[in-house]
């Protein structure tokens, strides 16, 4: 006999309603901040420093489920692409492209890792449990689910930045001297190597050392071409 909706269904409904309310109240801010800067930098990519000390294997991060701490040493021998992501950004269209990149280059040892962040135009306003439903039903929507590991929402710049991003930023110069408008960024202090916007990317080699860094406006097609060129050196070994 029917006894009403299951608790899991009720929770899902509450999460979706919460997401819709957030979008309604934050829409003006999100739309305005998506504009940020349209000026393109002179370079889309920069190689990382050759004398980097340490590796990503010295660090770990909390998975999006909030329960599991993932140590990056489990990716030893892999080519790892770190991406700071956001659900309600003009660049959120890169999510499906990242899925395709992961699917195509996984046989070559590529692993994509996503790190939700709310420091750029407040475009990741939800709690951790709201992020996956937001991606599935809102943006990109259409039932989208990432095929790569997402981590708990956190800072990538400023006093509370995640340690892995402190390491990555110090290892790689930024491709652009452009800094977005102060009204769209939410951290202090501001430093020269800071991430400028959602969907910047860092590639780390199979030895755990950062290799290259991309500006957020770099198309995924460009990122893919750069990675493929980089991977050629491993085919001859």
TrEMBL record:
Catalytic reaction list: 2 glutathione + H2O2 = glutathione disulfide + 2 H2O
SUPFAM superfamilies, per database record:
Thioredoxin-like (SSF52833)
Q: Which GO terms describe its cellular component?
A: extracellular region
Q: Which GO terms describe its molecular function?
A: glutathione peroxidase activity
Location relative to the cell:
Secreted
Look up the record and give one Gene Ontology term from the biological process aspect. response to oxidative stress
InterPro entries from the entry?
Glutathione_peroxidase (IPR000889), GPX_AS (IPR029759), GPX_CS (IPR029760), Thioredoxin-like_sf (IPR036249)
Q: Which Pfam family would be a valid example here?
A: GSHPx
Q: Which CDD domains does the entry link to?
A: GSH_Peroxidase
Catalytic site: 89
Q: Which family does it belong to?
A: Belongs to the glutathione peroxidase family.
Q: What is this protein called?
A: Glutathione peroxidase
Whose protein is this, by species? Cricetulus griseus
> Mind giving the lineage of the organism this protein is from?
Eukaryota, Metazoa, Chordata, Craniata, Vertebrata
Originating gene: Gpx5
């Amino acid at each position: 006999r029917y006894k009403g909706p299951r608790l899991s269904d009720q929770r899902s409904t509450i999460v979706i309603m919460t997401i819709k309310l957030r979008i309604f109240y934050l829409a003006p801010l999100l739309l305005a901040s998506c504009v940020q800067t349209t000026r393109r930098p002179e370079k889309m990519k920069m190689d990382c420093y050759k004398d980097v000390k340490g590796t990503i294997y010295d660090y770990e991060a909390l998975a999006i489920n909030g329960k599991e701490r993932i140590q990056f040493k489990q990716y030893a021998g892999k080519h790892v692409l770190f991406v700071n992501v956001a659900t309600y950004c003009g660049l959120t269209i890169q999510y499906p492209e990242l899925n395709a990149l992961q699917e195509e280059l996984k046989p070559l040892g590529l692993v994509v890792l996503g790190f939700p962040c709310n420091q750029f135009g407040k475009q990741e306003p939800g709690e951790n449990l709201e992020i996956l439903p937001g991606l599935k039903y809102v943006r990109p929507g259409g039932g989208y689910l990432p095929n790569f590991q997402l981590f708990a929402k956190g800072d990538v710049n400023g006093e509370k930045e995640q340690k892995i991003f402190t390491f990555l930023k110090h290892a790689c110069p930024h491709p652009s001297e452009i800094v977005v408008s102060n009204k769209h960024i939410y951290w202090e202090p501001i430093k020269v190597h800071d991430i400028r916007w959602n969907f910047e990317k860092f590639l780390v080699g199979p030895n755990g050392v950062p290799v290259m860094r991309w500006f957020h406006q770099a198309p995924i097609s460009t990122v893919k071409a750069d990675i493929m060129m980089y991977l050629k050196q491993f085919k001859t070994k």
